[in-house]
Amino acid sequence: MSTLLQTIDIESAPNPSVAIIWMHGLGADANDFVPMVRELDLAGLPGIRFVFPNAEMMPVTINGGYVMRAWYDIVATDLGRHEDEKGLRVSQGQVEALIARENARGIPLERIILAGFSQGSAMTLQTGLRQPGKLAGMMCLSGYVPIADKAIAEHTAASKATPIFMAHGRMDPVVPVARAEQSRDLLKQLGYQVEWHEYPMQHSVCQEEVVHISAWLKKVLA
User: Fold this and answer.
1) Which residues form the Phospholipase/carboxylesterase/thioesterase domain (predicted)?
2) Of residues 24, 84, 118, 142, which has the active-site annotation?
3) Residue 1 included in any domain
């Protein structure tokens, strides 16, 4: 059993009844999206525990083997080839351990949202599509479905009830919007309900996106 990942936990109110496990991108850390909590309009929502985990340190091939926080290795700029399936599955287990901790804290699966940016978005889908029940939602920012052929084979029928939010920049040089569109179309073909947004930005987050995230949270947590 691996050690539980380090996390930064922020509660919007005492005794939260919802958890959002929010995963950072390659080379970032748990602090990356902490400032966004203040930017989100949470008015009218139940108490939320935001859980920001730190991925473990590992050498990343595409960056010359430099050691950084990563959920899995990136071998080539073509994200669909030579994917690090082992790394994805190890990190999936670590995210599932965080879900189990929230269950132990009294928050059931259907009141947990998985969220992430870039690699964190890929981990949201890697983990969320394989859950034995419905999550409150999957929020996927500038990401894609990793090991898509395995996702087709391994996604669960129960997970199809989980609403998915996907947002992407049209000028993204890191995860091309075409890759995200392929993932969106695949999810729809599998029977998922996907809310899609795209913005005139690169590999980042914009203010309009924050507004859309707030609206989506209010919808799925109503």
Assistant:
1) 15-220
2) 118
3) no
Is residue 212 situated within a structural domain?
yes
Give the CATH number, domain containing residue 117: 3.40.50.1820
Q: Residue 91's domain spans which residues?
A: 7-221
Split into its structural domains, the chain has a count of: 1
Active site residue 172: yes
The one catalytic residue among 203, 204, 212, 214? 203
155 as an active site residue: the answer is no
Mean pLDDT for each 10-residue chunk of the chain (222 residues)?
A: 87 97 97 96 96 97 94 82 91 98 98 98 98 98 96 97 98 95 98 98 97 97 91
Residue 2 lies in a domain: no
Annotation says 142 is catalytic: no
116, 205 contact by CB (below 8 A): no
Which of 32, 73, 84, 172 is labelled catalytic? 172
